[in-house]
From TrEMBL:
Residues 173-407 form the Radical SAM core domain. Transmembrane segments: none annotated. This is DUF4080 domain-containing protein. It comes from the Bacteria. It holds the Pfam family B12-binding. Its cofactor is [4Fe-4S] cluster. InterPro entries: BchE-like (IPR051198), Cobalamin-bd (IPR006158), Cobalamin-bd_sf (IPR036724), DUF4080 (IPR025288), Elp3/MiaA/NifB-like_rSAM (IPR006638), Methyltransferase_Class_B (IPR034466), rSAM (IPR007197), rSAM_horseshoe (IPR023404). Keywords: Iron, Iron-sulfur, Metal-binding, S-adenosyl-L-methionine.
Length: 572
């Protein structure tokens, strides 16, 4: 009996962990030596290509991991799969199957079984039952049809450490994509919008295993190793030990250029850990600090326990080090947070100065407490995944549409890091709050027809056109800052047409820079240059030899223009 384990991703850069965990379970616990194969794809592939990949191994059993990003795709594939392999068995798992198992079994006759909870033991037990023809009806986590009714068994209660998913085949399949690692399972919190804390408690894997697997993934060819622990630092001493281990191995058994991404609760950091993190190499760590809201009653209503004062204090300290990329999340659509209060949360989060402020929108997930209590808050949401909120008692549809437009402006203006100089200047001279600035520009972009697929050069032109007319903004200064931003972001040295000025002196400057021998990068342009005309004529030179590992921007330096002209005795 051959088993196919399938993962369909949202993007190619993501790799799968679930099928490899299931494969490890089959190797460790199945009574029969089942042959298995792992197939990965993306939702961006044509259905025909995915079906072809699924059918190629000629499997008898298909086990598919279901999430909000792929369940619609999987449901389209199932009828074709059953038609082409009429005798096969189809098993679904993952949150988009396990939390609505009865409904899926009723709606999808192609599905034979659904598994809920951890699958390392339950999948091998089900496979053994299929092989012998005696599937145990009481198997924990199993959902199946029993005549005209559907039986759904409670998920297993697991205490043991699961077998490691990392094997030779895994590393062959990884091919430099983002690598994922869990060093624990579960979450200490029970946020009403999330599924991670439904099963209480956290189960930590051994420190020795965590360290061994961190080194394996760091040397796998992946540039980013993403820890999927829901709150990595919920055990401060354990987090300190692992941070310390990684810092100690940086540049030794961990190659240069590899970075580690953690989801953390910033208010749980102690002083000792913060001091340790200050010693990490630049760009070595990325921290995603879930915040969600600054409104105390909102956080209490969704059972989010956060010490906001300590969180802000710790984030400011971490950001001041300048050696880590810090990412903060807000969720629009939570209870009690109408537009004015959300704007307050947004402004307070932005004032912390994170490298990225992600504005997400509440999704009413199957199994979440907020979905079960949706009527209380007047929620309406999309029937199809990702079940995104469309309105509630606190935010109208128009409010949420406005926030979606603002989110696009936030992504392109701020999170992209392409307008850093420009934004700093605009906040200083306009007096606008962050929310007001992004909101105003988002409205302008909407009038232009929307900005999601607009080329960067056109978008830059819109930024220049809109903000140059705002009170307090000096047009020439805005041009200079936009020019500097453009030079810092791509190693082409090209400047959008709206910012170009014909100046014959540029050729002389470029010649002196090339002759200096300082710029030897052979990939793309070695440097980018522009003449700035405000604050005294200056030359801006962006060095394309190496990016800043934290901001992903190229360094830029400024010098008086006469230093670069041929008749001046100075040098470049």
């Amino acid at each position: 009996m051959k088993v196919l384990l399938c993962a369909i991703h949202s993007k190619y850069i993501h790799s799968a962990l679930a099928p490899w965990c299931l494969a490890a379970g089959i190797r460790a616990y199945a009574k029969e030596p089942f042959a298995y194969e792992i197939v990965e794809g993306t939702v961006n592939q044509p259905d025909e290509a995915l079906i072809s990949a699924l059918l190629r191994p000629e499997a008898d059993v298909f086990a598919l991991s279901c999430y909000i990003w792929n369940i619609s795709c999987i449901r389209r594939l199932l009828p074709v799969l059953k038609r082409e392999r009429p005798g096969c068995k189809v098993i679904l798992g993952g949150p988009e199957a396990s939390f609505c198992a009865a409904r899926l079994l009723s709606e999808c006759p192609q599905v034979d079984y659904i598994l809920a909870g951890e699958g390392e033991r339950t999948l091998p037990a089900l496979l053994d039952g299929l092989f012998t023809g005696r599937v145990p009806a009481s198997l924990p986590g199993l959902a199946f049809r029993d005549g005209d009714r559907v039986q759904v068994n409670p998920p297993p209660q697991v205490c043991e450490e699961p077998p490691s998913p990392y094997c030779e085949d895994y590393f062959t399949a990884l091919r430099g994509r983002i690598a994922y690692l869990e060093t624990s399972r579960g979450c200490p919190f029970s946020c009403a919008f999330c599924l991670s804390g439904i099963h209480k408690g956290v189960r930590f894997f051994s420190l020795e295993r965590a360290k061994r697997e961190l080194l394996l993934l760091a040397n796998s060819g992946a540039q980013t190793v993403k820890l999927v622990d829901r709150t990595f630092n919920c055990n401060p001493k354990r987090a300190y030990d692992l941070f310390s281990f990684l810092i100690g191995e940086a540049g030794r058994s961990i190659p240069k250029g590899v970075c580690f991404h953690f989801e953390v609760a910033a208010d749980l950091f102690d002083d000792e850990t913060i001091r340790l993190l200050s010693t990490a190499p630049p760009g070595f760590f990325q921290m995603e600090a879930g915040l969600q809201s600054f409104q105390a009653d909102t956080l209490e209503e969704v059972n989010r326990k956060t010490d906001l004062e300590r969180l802000c204090r710790n984030l400011k300290r971490l950001l001041a080090f300048g050696n880590m990329h810090i990412h903060i999340d807000l969720i629009a659509g939570l209870p009690f947070e109408g537009l004015p209060r959300f704007a307050d949360s947004f402004n307070r989060a932005f004032s912390l100065g994170p490298h990225m402020l992600q504005l997400g929108f509440l999704k009413l997930l199957h199994g979440s407490a907020l979905r079960q209590a949706a009527q209380r808050y007047g929620y309406r949401w999309t029937d199809t995944p990702p079940y995104q909120v469309e309105e509630n008692r606190f935010l109208s549809r128009a409010d949420l549409s406005r926030l979606h437009r603002l989110e696009d402006a936030l992504e392109r203006l701020y999170n992209s890091a392409r307008f850093s100089f420009t934004l700093r200047y605009l906040f200083k001279v306009t007096g606008l709050s962050p929310f007001s600035l992004f909101d105003a520009f988002a409205s302008f972009v909407e009038e232009k027809g929307g900005g999601a697929n607009v080329p960067l050069s056109t978008y830059t032109e819109w930024v220049f056109a809109f903000f140059s007319k705002q009170p307090g903004v000096e047009k020439a200064r805005l041009r200079d800052l936009l020019t500097c931003d453009r030079l810092c972001c791509e190693n082409t040295g090209r400047i959008p047409a709206c910012l170009r000025k014909k100046d014959k002196r540029l050729k002389a400057v470029a010649a002196r820079l090339k002759a200096s021998g300082r710029y030897t990068n052979q990939k793309g342009a070695p440097f980018g240059i522009a003449i700035l005309y405000t604050g005294g004529e200056r030359i801006a030179v962006a060095d394309y030899q190496e990016k800043d590992p934290v901001t992903s921007r190229y360094p830029i330096r400024f010098s008086p223009l006469p230093l670069f002209l041929p008749e001046h005795p100075g040098n470049a």
